[in-house]
Specification:
It is found in: Peroxisome. By secondary structure, this protein is α/β, with parallel strands linked by helices. The chain is built from 11 helices and 9 strands. Strands 1-2-3-4-6-9 form a 6-stranded mixed beta sheet, with helices on both faces. A 3-stranded mixed beta sheet has the order 5-7-8. β1 and β2 form a beta hairpin. It is globular.
């Protein structure tokens, strides 16, 4: 694994820790590759019963590394980011997230594919795709309205509104909000270990039944989103938004 992605195996649980604290755990191509490979490998590893994804005690992830994003934009089904999204979409073993602090962009949309989500009171979930001249990704344009209803999904995707950990729990984006710090991971680990103690065949089938049809449609939507996302990323609005972000100024968009 890359130094920016740590792995730990314990009592049937694989924990994947985003470890790039100086960049608020912003995701690079190498980190996406590592996550995709680890989750895919876990599906064939009989010793692993559940997978936890977490960041640090102060930050889950600030989303895509903007510099990496601009210089080497992801495109095509074999790109690291798409391999990761496919891996979480079709994972047969339970995925559990432990979220402290910011969870921006894909840091929030990946949670829609998890089976259990534990957040800190100080967690801040945000999907600012429109702010960057982009569109929803990771199947979120299908999964979010299905989970929250159209109005709340529009609030989060069209306005890019930030949601606290407590609010995320209230509206159904998370299972439980806990005090910030290690308590979030410990809650995720306790659930993962409980899953690991249960009959694996029953767990696998139950997840399959819960997600019957959902994963397939999310995959189809993900492909459509990906085509639009790649096109928008090359457009003037996204270039201006991302450049303004790097230069720490307000973007200026041309009239249409």
């Amino acid at each position: 694994m890359t130094e920016h992605l740590l792995t730990e195996r314990q009592d049937g649980v694989l924990t994947l820790t985003l470890n790039r604290p100086d960049k608020k755990n912003a995701l690079t191509r190498d980190m996406y590759s590592g996550l995709a490979d680890a989750i895919a490998s876990a599906q064939d590893d009989k010793a692993i019963r559940a997978v936890i994804i977490r960041g640090s005690d102060s930050c889950f992830t600030s989303g895509n590394d903007v510099s990496d994003f601009i210089n080497t934009p992801s495109s095509g089904p074999d790109s690291p980011v798409y391999r990761f999204l496919k891996a979480i979409c079709h994972a047969e073993k339970p995925l559990i997230a432990a979220v402290n602090g910011p969870a921006v962009g894909v840091g929030t949309t990946l949670l829609l594919h998890c089976d259990l989500v534990y957040v800190a009171d100080n967690a801040r979930l945000k999907m600012p795709f429109v702010n960057l001249g982009l569109c929803p990704e990771a199947g979120s344009s299908f999964l979010l309205p299905r989970l929250l209803g159209h109005l709340r999904a529009a609030e989060l995707l069209l306005l890019g509104e930030e949601v606290s950990g407590q609010r995320a729990t209230e509206i159904g984006l998370a299972n439980q909000a806990l005090p910030a710090g290690d308590a979030v991971y410990q809650a995720a680990l306790a659930s993962a270990q409980r899953i690991a103690s249960l009959p694996p065949g029953s767990i696998k089938l139950s997840k399959q039944l819960i997600k019957a049809g959902v994963s397939r449609q999310a995959d189809e939507v993900m492909s459509i989103e990906g085509e639009h996302f790649a096109r928008l990323l090359q457009g003037a609005e996204a270039r201006e938004a991302l450049t303004a972000f790097m230069e720490k100024r307000q973007p200026v968009f041309a009239d249409h």
